[in-house]
Amino acid sequence: MKRLLPCLCTTILALSAHAADVPGGGIDGAALMRHVQVLASDRFEGRAPATAGEERTVAYIAERFAEAGLQPGGDGGGWTQAVPLVRARVEGPVVATLHVGGEDRALANGEDITLQSLSPVDRVEVERAPLVFVGFGIDAPERGWDDYKGADLAGKVAVVLINDPDFETPEPGAFDGRAVTYHGRWTYKYEELARRGALGALIVHETAPAAYGWETVRASGLSPLFDIPRADAARHHTLLRGWIHRDTAVSLFAAAGLDFEREKARAQTAAFAPVALGDATLSAAFDVVRDEVVTRNVVGRLDGASRPGETVIVSAHWDAYGIGEPDASGDRIRRGAVDNATGVAAVLELARVFAAGPRPARSLLFVALAAEEKGLQGATYYAANPLTPLETTAAVLNIEMLSPDGPTHDIATWGNGRVSLEDDLGRIAQAHGRRRSPDPNLESGFFYRADHFAFARAGVPAITIGAGLDMVEGGVERGTALREAYFADCYHRPCDAWSPDWDPSGQVRDVELLYALARELADGDHWPHWHEGSEFKALREASQERRARPAE
Questions:
Q1: How far apart are CA 275 and CA 151, in angstroms?
Q2: Pairing of strands 410-413, 462-467
Q3: Are 201 and 238 in contact, with CB atoms under 8 Å apart?
């Protein structure tokens, strides 16, 4: 994360009181830094899927797994699991025009709007499609909520708000207050509008509800899209999709005779019904190049000593955003040092120390997952095509965005998972003189933005673990300032880069906790579980019933 204060500690790391419990000489801070420095170097070109950067990344990770002493855990006895994807990228100029109140306004792609398509076409042409505001675009009968009220969206472009209706209301309502549900995620908005038969979907960007600024939207909006191959892709995607800048949306609503804030307030109530944006229409045209590519999960295996058929997965995504538009300095490489070369480095170091120590009872799979930044594609593919049965997968420990700014008193989990793994991590952290901090930003929806979610949807107990905020030097105030600066300035942008000024001591301490948790899970005979209130509890219980049945 972007450093606001100079490093106050040396690069010579003192071992913690528990470091002696870790085999292989303990967690090596120099190795963690070396992995990040390599993976986030310019030579790896931002580690985008299906690029030369992927080739170098996959080779590097597989070589480190082999050096550690793991066995290949991928397809056909190799180090990788192939993840077939469809890649769709906009080719050439994007022409977009708003027609409203008798006037035409040209929209600049990347500035006023971002437009893309995953529909199976080679050109998108939309001519004066009516614009309709659908509020938050949510259909949730279990919460007594229906934003659509039977509206016919065929041939229309829906304008939809990001996040949930409760995000800005003074009191919690049907959507858990500021803790975003899956209905608040942009992925859900696109999925639901495709189910509703809309011609297009435009999400209004607002920084606080989205949890990132327009530059992040722009970076992803000008990058290729990826999807799993589908025979019926047109049914799963609107013809056109994208985001609209808040200022552009406010101007659009005003030209249509509507007040944006007033309409948003109306959308925060269950009585909301869609409204046409006056006579406003959208015209758009651009070419789309579609091709099928194969990206890869990288998988190393350490067979269990006594229960090798049971598995614990330790994972992190290897991809970043590749080469994109230049920033103010002309830099185009989005290196993904914090997000998520730090996570991959932790997986590599955990693989090394586990292979150096006593063999655990359960098998361990160390997995570097592909295409997380493209919609959790590698994790979703693995969950649908597991290399070991999900019924006998005890847990998934996913690692994201460890801090380069030094040690913290706490370690964090993403979202409110309602899973026993959170309790396990808290207990282990306490034994190490630390604590687990619940996600302080539930409104950001991080639970749905990391690879563990793909496993959770399949019922497997899973969490994502990341850096805490309570800095040993500077406390929560400094930790919060560093986090906010990172997301404001560097998230998914070129300045997310490795620096020799990084202080890896916090990462060492975090990876020590991860080792202790993974060791307990791999050596134990208990099965982690979802707590009451989790939408994944029934799935897990059904899979465990299947596991317990005697073979016929």
A1: 9
A2: antiparallel
A3: yes
